[in-house]
Structure formats: C-alpha cells, structure tokens
Write the structure tokens for this entry.
Amino acid sequence: MRDGTGRMRSCELRNDSKAGADWAVMPVENGEPMFGRRCGSEQIARYVAAAAKTDLLRTGWAEDEMRAIES
C-alpha cells in the first residue's frame, strides 16, 4: 500500500506455530516493523490483515501497483 506522501506499508504473516506461538500479523512501514499481533490461526491472521488493508484504503491509501501484480 502507498499513501499520498509516498509512505509504503505492507503486512507480513508469520507462521510461528512450530515455536508454539501460533500466527503473527506484522504491519511494516517503509521496511520497519510497526508492531505485531498474535492470532490463534492462519484464518484469523488473514482476517486481521484484510481488515487493516480495508482501513488503509478507506483513509486514502492505495494498493501499490507492482505488489498487486505480484500477488
């Protein structure tokens, strides 16, 4: 995602279940992690990431065209 000033934001999903920590959702802005949120399943982690994307789109952010093509 990209805002009008050029800031870029993405979201990483991490499967930490082998370490006993379930899934993590980690928003990243300009390459720097912002925070992390633990989720009990991949489905919940994907829901949290999708909700964050919806909020950004609603507040003026836009999908980065190159990232959308790669997905």
In short: The helical segments are 42-58, 65-70.
